[in-house]
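Run: sequence + pyridoxal-5'-phosphate -> complex structure.
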Amino acid sequence: MRACLFCAAFDAVFAAVSPGQQPPRLLHVPPGPRSRALASRLANVECPAFDARRTSRAALSGHEHAPIVYVSGLGSNVLDADDNQYVDLVAGFGALVLGHCPDVLQKALCDQASQLWLALGDVYSTEVKLSLCEQLAARFPEPGARVMLGSSGADAITAALKTAVLATGSPRVIAFTGSYHGLSYGPLAACGLNDAFRIPFAAQLSDHVRFLPYPDTERALDEVLAALRHEPFGAILIEPILGRGGCVVPPPETLCALRQACDEHKALLIVDEIWTGLGRCGAWFDSVDQGVLPDVVCIGKALGGGFPISACMGRGRVMEAWGVQGGATLHTATHFGAPLGCAVALAVLRAIDEQGLVARARQLGLQWTLALRERLDGSRCGVREVRGRGLMVGIELHGGASRTLAVMRALLTRGYLVLTGGVAGDVLTLTPALDIEESLLLGFAEVLEQVLVACPC
Ligand SMILES: Cc1ncc(COP(=O)(O)O)c(C=O)c1O
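>> structure
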């Protein structure tokens, strides 16, 4: 019989907890032999960029970055190809707000799958799409909102950028360094996370975007306000909290100041809530919670709970611009608003409401952040800052990207899945399912402390 390598003590403590909320249980040092074999076959056939990144990460951190391969997931647990069980603190890049394979979404998918997979989008539609659009419009902070559905976050951002041109007549957009909005061409032009994403394709991107520092300081905010005074812009595109950019939280007055400036200069305020929205940060929309009425809000990730669906929602008077384009549909795609995605999204919204997950994320996130701060305080852990809102938490480390990657790797070998982020790659980003058990979060804090102490700067 194979023995668990690290977790006997945790097993005893958590034996009684529910399925999908189990502590790590490792049978092989990850990646085990089957993950290695599968990953190496995959590297022979998939886009070489992924394997190249692993090689460069290994060189940077001095640790190998061979991946595990997922086989199944339940709640906040993932099983890999070697039967190792992990606690998932990434949750599908923040999309799995109800965890892996929740019953309610399986049921919604199965019911819809036995009825209708695809209608005819903008030609002949479905009641399930109508219900979703009505529910989303009703959650928008102003009556009369209009909804455009998409399949990915990048789709929603593309729709928002097009909305800005139609509504204001200006293609110019202010976007921010450190921001990430997806990598298809519309959002790519506004991707400030890393120039390397844009440089190879620069000749296919127009230069309508002006990048400014993310307004998390008074000085950076002033720079945005000055830019708006000096040049005409159609829109500001902003994440209320930088996600991939390292979980950077701007001061509370920032979005309000941008709202006011957009009103003065007739630009749209487009808020990218693809990561922050739908409860992740303890509110339906983080921007609205900051007291702001955006012109356009983009949501994705959580909306499908792991199924690909997104939405761009705008104030009625802004979205009117789409209706006066001479009868052309202008923005559609085969799978936009398809019944399967709409059925899942409706079930996600219902589950978040019924399980009180918005308030839970706010409260649990607060407690977890405080627990992490307390535990990781002091120079021996080499932590610069623990920050975030709700269950979107970033831990900025001393020691740069190489240490952060080494910590991520060490956590993997202790059974915890985390990601790194930030412009400098020095932030651990944690976006667990909104219904994760508190004991798993506290267990992680303890293991993280041990790992950080063993991984000095
Ligand atoms: C804030 C934000 N916007 C947009 C996107 C793009 O979403 P997608 O990957 O679904 O296109 C992401 C993805 O991580 C994101 O974090």
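>> summary
The pocket of pyridoxal-5'-phosphate is lined by residues 93, 152-154, 157, 180-182, 239, 243-244, 272, 274-275, 300 (CB under 6 Å). The chain is about 40% helix and 15% strand.
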